[in-house]
UniProtKB/TrEMBL annotation:
One GO MF term attached to the UniProt entry: ferrous iron transmembrane transporter activity
Protein name per Swiss-Prot or TrEMBL: Protein p34
TM regions (residue ranges): 7-29, 41-59, 75-97, 109-131, 151-171
Naturally occurring in which organism (per UniProt): Paracoccus halophilus
InterPro entries given in the database record: Cation_efflux (IPR002524), Cation_efflux_CTD (IPR027470), Cation_efflux_CTD_sf (IPR036837), Cation_efflux_TM (IPR058533), Cation_efflux_TMD_sf (IPR027469), CDF_Transporter (IPR050291)
Pfam families (UniProt xref): Cation_efflux, ZT_dimer
Amino acid sequence: MSRTERIAIGSILVGLAVLALKTLAWWLTGSVALLSDALESTVNVATALAALVAIRYAARPPDDTHPYGHHKAEFFSAVLEGVMIITAALLILHEAWQGLRAPQPLDAPFLGLLVTTVASLGNALWCRLLIRRGRALKSPALIADGHHLRADVVTSAGVVIGVALVALTGWAVLDPLLAALVALNILWSGWKVMISSLSGLMDEAVGEDMLTDIRAAILTAGNGAIEAHDLRTRHAGPRTFIDFHLVVDGQTTVAAAHDICDRIEQALKTRVPDAMVTIHVEPEHKAESHSGVLVI
């Protein structure tokens, strides 16, 4: 089992524990705001399960029908997570509306707040680990899950403060109003997760910093070639795809050109782990005028 899979399983277990605590807090208080917090935790569990399935599928090696691998499966998981976050927000808005129509006083609010605070602290610690390890492992599913949990922590903090105000002031209408604000924040979080994931599905190029490293590797290791052009990149989960044309002297032997390509490929993989490199070699007299030429 890979490290990414172990972390994904950990997310499921943490999500179940947090869901149980937040459901208990809602049961103790009857708060619509705490119910909204618990509803979001059900999404956490569902999306953690989806992330685990996607991570396992993405880890499959290339085959005849997917020669470039299955790495984009994680992006589908992240998009699904965004959809589920938005769905949870709409459910919370419904509950908030019902609460506004008939505000109810809270039962045992401070005990419920204590339980929710413990659950939120657990989420805070876990979301930091998810984002840090997701970036290190280049896992879109783990990163999306981490950002979702971070939004959950922020909204939970707002819920705790708001429910405390309800308990102190006796203004029952604040409870559903707070739930509505939580829902709007969750909607924004779900939208950001979806947009980020869709960029990966659309073969978005690597960032400018990585692109600078890629160019530097080609220039440093390309001794013996004349120039490189038509550099293109895209990322799919942990994989970074790099392809370009390499111009060599027309008298260069196939073996010599191959050695140059091997050297460049090794330099690229040193700077960009898990890179998949494709180099099209062409002789100088066949090369055309191109923009973005790297003169070696």
